[in-house]
Amino acid sequence: MNRRLGVCSWSLQPTGPRDLAAKVASTGLRAVQLALDPIRTGAWSEPETRAALEGVQLLSGMMGTKGEDYSTLDSIRRSGGVRPDSTWPDNLAAAKANATLAKRLGLSLVTFHAGFFPHDRHDPERARMIDRFRQVAAVFADRSIRIAFETGQESADTLLEVLDELPNVGVNFDPANMILYGTGDPVDAVKKLAPRIAQFHIKDAIPSPVAGQWGEEVVAGTGAVRWPDFFAAAASIVGDFIIEREAGTNRIADVIAARRLVETYA
């Protein structure tokens, strides 16, 4: 395989840097996408994190946004990413701090959820979000770091329209999110978004039988993602594979299952 394979640090639910390092080793992996906010806020010591992860490759960073409410699709549509006016100043400040941290850690890519871009290109809310995303992108670009936002919250076609206005921004492609949000077929979306994909999340899900409700995340290889077709579509795209698991009570076993899935096809 000519690309790197890692795991999202938050998927392993670590209690601290040393616990993260131990859990990464338990999965048989040696690379992570690192959540930056625990370090930014001081919950994790940066020197301790560096020391604990000395033998772990940092592939990219991830940052969250303030006030995200994932209770329902409606709640995350209102609260997610850079969209809410009430949290925008805090989120811009956090982006600046995370960019500085990412630079110190030697990262070249940071991903996050932008929020729901309206499908109507004439919606003033969409223009406002794009302007805010430009500001965030500039903060990271000043430190020679690229940003990418997660797929799933809008269709691939809407995302492409937005990306046309953000030429230096990439996509962190998560096939499960397309299913969880009910926004399209992941394999078709990979093909459409291929030129802008900077990284992949390896995650699986089954769709909700009720429109407008969450689908269900499941162990990679047991859901609705057509993995042979997905890996075939991704084969010519440059971007690391990062295993993400945000549900379940046996995360290490689930990450190992995802690792074996990737090793089978990629």
Walk me through what this model shows:
The protein has 266 residues and is α/β, with parallel strands linked by helices. The protein has a single domain, classed as Divalent-metal-dependent TIM barrel enzymes (TIM Barrel, Alpha-Beta Barrel). It contains eleven helices and ten strands. The strands form two sheets. The protein has an eight-stranded parallel β-barrel with strand order 1-2-3-4-5-6-7-10. The protein has a two-stranded antiparallel sheet with strand order 8-9. The protein is globular.
Instruction: Report the major sheet.
Output: 8 strands, parallel, barrel
Strand arrangement, largest sheet?
1-2-3-4-5-6-7-10
CATH superfamily: Divalent-metal-dependent TIM barrel enzymes
Mean pLDDT across every amino acid position: 93
Element-by-element helix/strand order: EHEHHEHHEHEHEHHEEEHEH
CATH class identity: Alpha Beta
Q: Poorly predicted ranges (pLDDT <50, ≥5 residues)?
A: none
CATH topology-level fold name: TIM Barrel
